[in-house]
Write a structure and sequence with these properties.
The chain is mostly beta strands. It is built from no helices and 14 strands.
Length: 180
Amino acid sequence: NFITFSDMPHFSDSCIHENSFYGIAADDDSKILYTTSLNLKEGETTDFEELVFKGGEGERLRRLFSLNDYVYLFRDNGIVKLYPYGTSAKLSISHVYYSPSYILANTISRCGEEIYFFTRDGFYKFNGSSVDRIELDVFDLIDLSGYESFASASQGGKYYLSCKMNFGGDELLGCEENQS
């Protein structure tokens, strides 16, 4: 069964955490819309609270994840922890990581109790409290110039990345016959 809402805003990413909904506004990548009640019935309207990030560190809002006891927001250059402020509907924020290198949004994927992602200078994992670099022998082969077309996913405790790699030379690998 699906419930439809005619006045629901559009979101570029979202997550549910402890009966609350969090979403990045599709028409404004500096704004999170959230509600602390998921007890909606068809035809009802919901009033979203807004949290707007203006300027400062981190740049655009990219992905939201519920991990452990918090919601984590991935930005172009950092990770922010979101949590309720007391019993009010307002949110508190805490910057938990600032990346000196651009975080590639399409590579951010949760795998178990960790979130994996690439930046322009390496591969990392985040466990809710710290970010650790993971050394990959193949990192130098990844063609970062086309990062917008990367895609990532995780399944069964494994992280998967679809990307273009540069092995040197003109030979094509992984292409169907007659493709270039």
